[in-house]
Design goal:
- The chain has 320 residues and is mostly beta strands.
- The protein folds into two domains: 3-128, Jelly Rolls, CATH 2.60.120; 185-318, Jelly Rolls (Sandwich), CATH 2.60.120.
- The protein is 2% helix and 49% strand.
- The strands form six sheets. Strands 2, 3, 7, 8, 11, 17, 20, 23 and 25 form a nine-stranded mixed β-sheet that branches. Strands 1, 4, 9, 10 and 12 form a five-stranded antiparallel β-sheet that branches. Strands 18, 19, 21, 22 and 24 form a five-stranded antiparallel β-sheet that branches.
């Protein structure tokens, strides 16, 4: 029997307090040997207190493992993790599940008192023909896929043909770092600055400089790794001036994004009608065999610790 359905793969409703750094986990949704999930998007109806959104973080648990580099704040209203119908690995970075799915919620600064709901949407497949009918192909990444950063003359190419069947599903892009290489999976990370900034100095969002060091927004990559940045957002209500991208000695944009309140060029939720949270960078920025990522800068007065929340979306590529 073959079956396909686009559905809410997991719905997690929670009432009651969650202390800062405490973790709660949803029920686990399990599937059979002839079934698979592809996670397309995550929606968050956040907890609030007196009309203010409370701080919590959300991460995926796929096939009983913590999924890397997806770490969403409660302000991430809607995050799309890839084009779920594409067979291009640099476009379809949707996480792939072969056994089970759950979500973890971690209490952020100040903890959580309000109710919230998380919905994980995606594709359910039962049987090999369901996969082939959905994708309209028998092989994923049958032709090489490339993405270009013309400003810095960078090109990333991925070619890893994988037959479209249930048994191979976890080897497709989005299957996580354990999948055969070259491999691609999504980045969707939100994090706070761990320390106060030094006035008028760039503050790189490295592992040492963010609250949750597992989820930096700055990377030191070798020749076999690449990060491609596509979307960005920031909330710095006190003393913020800029958020920007620095790769080597190059900046994008050249003048950085202005985030001083009450005007913010890259809010975490651009408007109430946008298809997803975070703002399109317009052209992808590639980091490969170099140091690069996001930084913030104050207006001459220090941004306090935990005073800046920055979100970034893109993809991580293991080339070899």
């Amino acid at each position: 029997m073959n079956k396909y359905d686009y559905r809410v793969l997991l719905r997690f409703k929670h009432s009651g307090a969650i202390a800062e750094n405490s973790v709660v986990t949803s029920d686990v949704v399990s599937i059979g040997n002839d079934e698979a999930f592809q996670i397309h998007k995550i929606e968050i109806i956040p907890p609030t207190n007196g009309g203010t959104v409370e701080n919590m973080f959300v991460r995926l648990i796929i096939d009983s493992n913590q999924y890397p580099m997806v770490y969403l704040h409660s302000l991430a209203r809607k995050i799309i993790l890839g084009d779920h119908r594409s067979t291009n690995p640099l476009i379809n970075t949707c996480p792939k599940a072969k056994k089970n799915l759950a979500v973890q919620v971690i209490g952020g600064p100040g903890g959580v008192t309000g109710d919230f709901e998380i919905r994980v949407w995606g594709d359910y497949f039962k049987g090999d023909d369901a996969l082939k009918n959905f994708f309209g192909a028998t092989v994923f990444n049958n032709t090489p896929a490339t993405v270009t950063d013309p400003f810095r003359n960078k090109v990333i190419s991925v070619h890893h043909p994988v037959p479209l069947n249930i048994s191979n599903f976890a080897s497709l892009p989005g299957g996580g770092p354990a999948a055969d290489k070259p491999n691609v999976f999504p980045i969707a990370v939100y994090n706070f600055n761990k320390n106060a900034t030094t006035p008028n100095m760039e503050y790189a969002l490295t592992a040492e400089n963010v609250k949750d060091m597992q989820f930096p927004e700055f990377w030191n990559l070798d020749a076999n790794e690449a990060v491609i940045l596509d979307r960005i957002g920031a909330s710095i209500p006190t003393n913020g001036k800029y958020v920007g991208i620095k790769v080597g000695n190059d900046y994008y944009p050249v003048g950085n994004y202005y985030v001083a309140e009450p005007y913010n060029e890259v809010p975490l939720n651009p408007d109430t009608t946008t298809v997803e949270s975070l703002n399109d960078i317009v052209r992808s920025v590639i980091i490969n065999n170099e140091l690069g990522g996001l930084f913030i800068q104050d207006n001459g007065t220090s941004i306090p610790a935990l005073g800046a929340l920055v979100g970034v979306k893109g993809k991580y590529v293991y080339l070899k």
